[in-house]
């Protein structure tokens, strides 16, 4: 038993060391990722559940490292936030997404709204609204075609400060949404203080709603109450025709998920939008 215990401890230490090494490696490499041109954005369409039209797209960060290969956001976004690297990376994401959206408009694609994820660090930064304004001006993208996705936890951390920050972003004329809705500890009652446009129902609810009646009840009440408070509702992680049909029946407004499209590299996204237009 003593032997087994010692093995257990060694195993645990090895696992800990591995985690620390992994984190240190990610951190060291992430520092150079931007300068070495390893970051890119992919775009996932958002679709109107009633007309079937593409209404916009979410920009998602991708990191291709020469030896580590593709590193998923789950492995590096947390590190980027803890180290503050997310500030520089996030500002690159914002500028790149705005420039891309404008380039597509110039190329004759129907004008679409591009959504950018915001981390807590960026949200707490006093200069955020100046930075957003600069990204809009430099790219020439009209404000209504930019949407920022904020998470609940990011806003609930300091409600008063969040209301102020959100109001100054809204004054720029951009759209705002609350991401991963239902996973944090906010309530719809709180939300009426925030002048946001969209609620995005978290994918965990969409995944389970057709097998768990209680989850379906949550989805239905978020849609109904959200609508009565004036929000538009987006469901994320829609993977099947049955999920799409259910959400449409419940009068959800828009959806996003593998069922319609995975996130796409810019060229593939443009081709998808063009194809969706002809039929
Ligand atoms: P998120 O904002 O909730 O983004 C949705 C995630 O779900 C994306 O994962 C997307 O690829 C994935 N997804 C979309 N449709 C489906 C589906 O039908 N089924 C399933 N199972 N998954 C689906 P991804 O790209 O790996 O990003 C993970 C998270 O990393 C994002 O979650 C977001 O929190 C963060 N992230 C990604 N890009 C950025 C960025 O530019 N800035 C910041 N701050 N965070 C980002
Ligand atoms: Ca998001
Ligand atoms: Ca989400
Ligand atoms: Ca998420």
TrEMBL record:
Signal peptide: none annotated. It comes from the Bacteria. This is EAL domain-containing protein. The chain holds residues 671 to 949 of 954 of the full protein. Residues 23-277 form the EAL domain.
């Amino acid at each position: 038993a003593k032997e087994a215990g010692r093995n257990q401890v060694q195993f645990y230490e090895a696992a800990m060391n591995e985690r620390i090494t992994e984190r240190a490696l990610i951190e060291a490499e992430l520092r150079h990722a931007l300068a070495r041109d390893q970051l890119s954005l992919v775009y996932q369409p958002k679709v109107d559940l009633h007309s079937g039209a593409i209404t916009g797209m979410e920009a998602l960060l991708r990191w291709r490292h020469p030896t580590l290969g593709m590193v998923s956001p789950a492995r590096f976004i947390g590190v980027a936030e803890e180290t503050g690297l997310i500030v520089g990376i996030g500002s690159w994401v914002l500028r790149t997404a705005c420039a891309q959206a404008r380039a597509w408009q110039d190329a004759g694609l129907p004008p679409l709204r591009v959504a950018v994820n915001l981390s807590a660090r960026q949200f707490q930064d006093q200069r955020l609204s100046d930075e957003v304004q600069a990204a809009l001006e430099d790219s020439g993208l009209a404000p209504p075609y930019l949407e920022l996705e904020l998470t609940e936890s990011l806003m609930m951390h300091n409600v008063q400060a969040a209301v102020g920050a959100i109001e100054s972003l809204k004054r720029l004329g951009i759209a705002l949404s609350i991401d991963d809705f239902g996973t944090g500890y906010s309530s719809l009652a709180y939300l009426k203080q925030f002048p946001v446009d969209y609620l995005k129902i978290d994918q965990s609810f969409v995944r389970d709603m057709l097998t768990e009646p209680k989850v379906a009840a949550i989805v239905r009440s978020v849609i109904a109450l959200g609508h009565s408070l004036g929000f538009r509702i987006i469901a994320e992680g829609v993977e099947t025709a049955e999920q799409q049909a259910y959400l449409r029946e419940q009068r959800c407004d828009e959806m996003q998920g593998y069922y319609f499209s995975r996130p796409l590299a810019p060229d593939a996204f443009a081709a998808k939008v063009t194809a969706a237009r002809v039929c």
